[in-house]
Every structure is written in C-alpha cells, then in structure tokens.
C-alpha cells in the first residue's frame, strides 16, 4: 500500500474498488488502466488524508501473471481476476468488458467485500460498469470517475511483422516507422499498435517493433482446437474476439487502419465491434484492373472491385498506393454503394516508399570493362498471373542475348528470385520457352529476405521487375532506392509513379511495349554500364529527398458529420 493509504486504521475499515479491465505494469501504457503511477495519484489527490486499509482492482484476465501480482502488491493493490465456469468453452466465451456488468456471474468475489467506501473507474470504457457495480453492490460508497492524460491510439490491422520481408510487409513496417517519427516530431500523443497472427513474438520482433515505435498484439490459439491443425492464418483476424483478447483492453483508439483487400474486412469488423467511435482508414494496395493484356484472361476482376468498393463504403478515409491505383479508384468511387456516395469519402494518394534499408545500402558502380552482365528479376512469382508478366521480359532478354552472341559479346546472366521451390522446374521451362535463345539460361531462386536481396542487388547490373500485378509491386522501387539501374514496362505501377513524380527520368527508365524499344534499352544498359549506374545514383539521390509519406500523414483528416456545403475538416499534422 502506498504511504498515503497507510496510517492508523479507523474503527471501521474502509476499502476502495478500482474497476478495470487489466493491470498494466508499464507506467506509460496507452490503455489508461491502473498503474502504480495512477494509483499513487488517486491516493494523493482524491483520498488525501482519508484512510483506506485496502485497494482492490478487477481485471478481465482469468489468470493473473506473477509480474502483475507483484507490481500491484507494491502499491497495496489486490487484483481480482474473473472466474469462468469450468464447463464454459474459452473460445466461445472470451474476456469482454460486459463481464464487469455481469459481475454476479464472473466476479462473485465482489460480494465478499463489505467495507468498500470508494468505487473508482479509470477510463471511459469501465465508467458504466463501475456505476452498475456501485448501484447494485455498494450504493453507500462514493463513485469516482478519474480521467488520466488522454493518449490516443492507432491500430494497424496486419498479419505479419518481419523486418527481413519485402513487398507489402516491408511497406507496412516502413509506414508505421514513418508515422511514429512524424507524430513524435509534432508532439502528438498517438501510439501505434499492430496485430500479427503469430502466437508468440520472437525477441527480434519485439526489439524491431520497439525501434519502430509500435506495440505488437499477437494471436492466441483456441484451447479446445487441434493444436497441430490450428495454425496461424489471415482468417484469424476475423476471429478477433477469441484470437485477440487484448484488443478489447485498448482505450482511446482513434484510428483503425486496414489494407484493402488484404485486411480490409477485418479492420472494418474490429472497428465496428470494439471501437465504434474510431475512424476506419483503408489503404488500397491492389488494382482490380490489370493494365497488361493477358492472353485468355479478363482485364478486370469484377469480384475484387465489388469487394473493395463495399469495403470503401465503410471507411472514413481512403488511401491508394501510387498513381495507378489512385486514379483507378478515383473513378471507381463515383459509384454509390449501399446508399453511400463513395466520392464523398476523403481519398488521397500515398507514395509507395521503399524501406530505409535500401536507401542506406551502398552500390559499387559497374564499369564497361567488366565482363559480367547480370540481370535481376524478382517478386512473388508463384502465380500464373505473375509469370505471364515476365513474358515480354524473357523475350527481350533472349533477343539481347542473341544479338550479343552475334557481336561476340558476353551474354547476360538472368537471375529470377521469388519462385516457390515446388514450382522451380515448371517456371524454368516456361521462361526458357519464352526466351527463345540458347545463349541465356534463367537461374531460379526461392523466396528471399531483405538482406539476401540487398546482396543480390549489389551483384547485379540491371533490374527488370515483373511488368504488373493486381497488387502493388514494390520491386522496381526497392532496386531504384538501392541505386541499381532499373527499367520498367510502361504498363506497370512503377512506371506511372516515375512519370508523375520523376518525369525527367521517364525516357531512361520506362520501356514501351514495342519490342525494339525494350531490346535497345536493355542492351544499352548492359553495354554502357558506367553511364547507367551514374544515372541510377542521380535518381537515388533525388528519391532520397522525396517526402514519401509526409503528405499522407498531413492529410490524415478528421471529418465531422458532413452537412450541406463543404466538408468540415480538421487537419492533424503527424
């Protein structure tokens, strides 16, 4: 018990009940639940000279950890965990705030407390529960609602946290890191959370998350499920009430952020069920319309578009990664879905920033006297769609190899990374057929980490990323950020970004669909390597100065209910 609660006891012992969902051992935790600091403040500022012999605190946990017990006992607090029937299914009856209202069932120990003088709520989430307990069990006690310094939170809904991953996973990490830096500079009291489907967090994950300014919320397996078959998967996010009990303990979540279509539905459901006052922010990372004409395939995926428009109808703010996806949805949002005009929802373009590790990497300039000529293509090449985007690339590399052979030049090597191990042979046969050349053999490698990719980028002379995906492809941008000469197809996501944000470099970096244009640009890059690397270095220096995410975070707007006339906007500078 803290010093202010000690002293000579009165004839009638007086006690205080703290109504909470959890006990946090961290004094600066966002959730606004009791900590040692808050309890001391309560004793000093509220109780003052009043003598309280004992403090109790409810928690939603069925079992309390030893760290929690010791931390609470250090300020004289006894934790009261919930009690659940031994016949109840833990997966069907997860801890929720409503347990506090149903205290006759889950907190029968409260009936044994006879000298409660104070009933205290530390947050808005438990305010009504504290009032209900006060009215039914301790009407003679004083009811207090304490308001700790408000700290708002942002919950990112995603499945993975891995500093060594590429693509959207790396972008997710980058965007949270930038968010944390920007809000810290602005002095904003916003704390970031991110879900992961891992059941346990590794030390590397914890350390890296702390470095990026985010708290990771891991999943839980269902106790009565087959442990060998109940493996982590994306669908767990939709089962958040049983898989993520810690979500229900968070306070003051201001934004719930999801990636559409990957985690859009999960983010919308979490916002609706747990944080109805929060703003739902969706980041579009896929384009239903594929700009490359694939044989025997439709250009557009109507089901994906319909799904993403329905997600958008639930959102308060929308972002789209890069110009191609942004322009597509700028037009698509002219529609009305479920009675809501989508064009009324704020919609902003967000730039696809590569990870900082690529900008920090050093690239040794290749010289014209070097005999080695290595071409790199990488990405998630484990689908038929992704493979078809390599057809034109393979044909051009084959033409260049044939021309080099006729001119007695060393033919290029072609490394292809991102092919699943079971598909390597099939993919290699497909690419050999499209190459139509006996002078170059594609060398295929499975998936890769960031560090391994950086090594391969430093050993290459040219990057030819797949032309287009439904999902945004970050491959060419990562190579450009590393300083590797990169040439992209004019129908790709990256090409549209270069044309809009780096127009001076369009002629060099963007290839048209004409075969001669592609062949000439690839050939020139491999024969004039010094010139190509100098240009790549210039482009890298320019891209370093780009404020990739500043506009996005500066345009994270809070929109009040729309009235007639212009939108009422309040700018939040993060």
Can you walk through the features of this model?
With 574 residues, the protein is of the alpha/beta class. It folds into three domains: 3-145; 152-353, 3-Layer(aba) Sandwich (Rossmann fold), CATH 3.40.50.2000; 361-544, Rossmann fold, CATH 3.40.50. Strand 1, helix 1 and strand 2 (54-58) form a beta-alpha-beta unit. Residues 4-11, 27-31, 291-298 and 555-574 have low confidence and may be disordered.
Which keywords apply here?
alpha/beta, 3 domains, 7-stranded parallel β-sheet, 5-stranded parallel β-sheet, 22 strands, 36% helix, 16% strand
Largest sheet: 7 strands, parallel
What is the percent of helical residues? 25-40%
Low-pLDDT stretches: 4-11, 27-31, 291-298, 555-574
CATH topology of the largest domain: Rossmann fold
Give the SSE layout.
Elements lengths: L14 E5 L16 H12 L6 E5 L7 H8 L3 E4 L17 H4 L1 H4 L9 E6 L5 H11 L4 E4 L6 E5 L10 H19 L4 E6 L7 H10 L1 E4 L22 H4 L9 E8 L3 H11 L4 E6 L17 H11 L4 E5 H11 L3 E2 L2 E2 L5 E4 L5 H5 L13 E5 L5 H5 L2 H16 L6 E5 L6 H12 L6 E4 L4 H9 L3 E2 L11 H8 L5 E2 L3 H9 L4 H4 E2 L3 H13 L1 H16 L5 H5 L1 E4 L9 E4 L2
Parallel strand pairs: 1-2, 1-4, 2-3, 4-5, 6-7, 6-9, 7-8, 9-10, 10-11, 11-14, 15-16, 15-18, 16-17, 19-20
Antiparallel strand pairs: 12-13, 21-22
Helix pairs in contact: 11-18, 14-15, 14-20
